[in-house]
Write a structure and sequence with these properties.
The chain is α/β, with parallel strands linked by helices and 326 residues long. The protein is 42% helix and 18% strand. The protein has two domains: 162 residues, D-Maltodextrin-Binding Protein, domain 2; 96 residues, D-Maltodextrin-Binding Protein, domain 2. It has a six-stranded mixed β-sheet, sandwiched between helices. It has a five-stranded mixed β-sheet with strand order 7-6-8-5-9.
C-alpha cells in the first residue's frame, strides 16, 4: 500500500521517535527533564568534595542527559546548606553531597532538622583520608615533635579548620588521647586552612588529602601523620597515628549523597543508579584516584545502617572530647 508523501513523512518521523525512545531503558526516564538537578555542596569551591561533585555532575549530564548544577553553600559548619536541602521540595531535583560533618553537626549545633530522619540516604559515593600537615619550613618534622611541643606549651600552638566539623572533632579526640592541647583557629574552608599554614599564621591543620595534595607534591607542606586505619596509598611513607603508639583511629572522610525526606523511592533508586554508575566508570575512578579519592560505597538500606552506627560512634567521642554545641 502506498501512502501520500506527507503521510509517509509523518509515519517516518513517528518511527524514528519511537526508535529513540526504545534505545533508552525505562529507568532512565526523567519526568522533570527540563528542570536542572541542584547538587548542593556545603563547602567552598576547591577540595575533594567539590571536585567529586563536579566530576559526577558532568558525567551524569553526559550519560543521562540530565542537567546537574553544583551549588556551593558554605557556612555554619555545613548547617546552612544542609538545612536548605532538608526544606526543599522532595522531587529529586535538590540533592546534598556532604561529608561526615553531616552527622557531627547534630552534636555540635542546634539544628532544625535531624540528619537521620530528615533525609533519604542515597549512596556513599567516595572516601578520602585526612592528613595532619605543617609548613615544610616548620621545626616539627614528625607528629611526635608536634605533640611534645604542644604538651610543653598547652594552647599556644594552633591549628586551622572549619568550626563544628568532623575534622575538628577528630583532631580534638586525637589531642585528648595524646595529651596535647592546641587552639582552633576557624577558617571558611580547607583551602584557606592550608593557605594559613603556608603563611605561618597557624602551626598545623588537619585536612582531607585532596586539599593538600598539590602542596605536598610541591614540597611546600610536610605530612606528619594520618588518623586512618592504614597508610595512605598516595603517601605510603607517612605513618598512621596508631603506628606511632597512639590510639588506632579510622577518621577517613566519606562523601554522602542525600535527598529530602519523602522523595519517592523510585526516584531515589534512579539517582543511586545514575551517580554510582558515574563514579564507577573506569575513567572517572582513575580521575578521582589521581586526586586522592576512592570512588564507591554503600547505598540505600546499607548506607542508612552505616549512618546510624557512625552517628552513635561520633556522639560518644564528641562527649568524651568534651566538644560543646554552639
Amino acid at each position: 500500500m502506498k501512502f501520500p508523501r506527507r503521510q509517509s513523512l509523518h509515519l517516518a518521523a513517528a518511527a524514528a521517535a519511537l526508535m529513540i525512545l526504545l534505545a533508552f531503558p525505562a529507568h532512565r526516564a526523567w519526568p522533570q527533564a527540563a528542570t536542572p538537578i541542584r547538587l548542593v555542596v556545603p563547602y567552598p569551591p576547591g577540595g575533594g568534595i567539590d571536585s567529586t561533585a563536579r566530576i559526577m555532575a558532568e558525567e551524569v549530564g553526559r550519560t543521562q542527559g540530565a542537567v546537574v548544577v553544583v551549588e556551593n553553600r558554605p557556612g555554619a559548619g555545613t548547617v546552612i546548606a544542609t538545612e536548605a536541602v532538608s526544606r526543599a521540595k522532595p522531587d529529586g531535583n535538590t540533592l546534598l553531597l556532604t561529608l561526615n560533618s553531616f552527622l557531627v553537626a547534630a552534636y555540635t549545633h542546634k539544628l532544625s532538622y535531624d540528619p537521620l530522619t530528615s533525609f533519604e540516604p542515597i549512596c556513599m559515593t567516595a572516601t578520602t583520608p585526612l592528613v595532619i600537615v605543617v609548613d615544610a619550613r616548620s621545626p616539627y618534622r614528625s607528629f611526635d615533635d608536634l605533640v611534645r611541643a604542644a604538651r610543653a606549651k598547652p594552647g599556644e600552638l594552633t591549628y586551622a579548620q572549619i568550626t563544628g566539623t568532623f575534622s575538628v572533632a577528630g583532631f580534638e579526640m586525637l589531642s585528648r588521647d595524646v595529651g596535647m592541647k592546641m587552639t582552633l583557629v576557624p577558617f571558611a574552608g580547607n583551602a584557606r586552612s592550608v593557605t594559613a599554614v603556608l603563611g605561618g599564621h597557624v602551626t598545623a591543620t588537619i585536612v582531607d588529602y585532596p586539599s593538600a595534595a598539590g602542596q605536598l607534591r610541591a614540597g611546600s607542606l610536610r605530612a606528619l601523620a594520618t588518623p586512618s586505619r592504614a597508610r595512605m596509598e598516595w603517601l605510603p611513607e607517612v605513618p598512621t597515628v596508631a603506628e606511632l603508639g597512639h590510639q588506632e583511629l579510622d577518621l577517613d572522610l566519606w562523601y554522602g549523597l542525600f535527598a529530602p525526606k519523602a522523595t519517592p523511592k523510585a526516584r531515589i533508586g534512579q539517582l543511586a543508579d545514575w551517580f554510582t554508575t558515574s563514579v564507577n566508570r573506569p575513567e572517572v575512578r582513575s580521575k578521582l584516584f589521581a586526586q586522592g579519592i576512592k570512588a564507591g560505597g554503600e547505598c540505600g538500606v546499607a548506607f542508612a545502617a552505616f549512618l546510624r552506627k557512625q552517628s552513635d560512634e561520633y556522639g560518644l567521642f564528641i562527649r568524651e572530647a568534651n566538644i560543646k554545641a554552639e
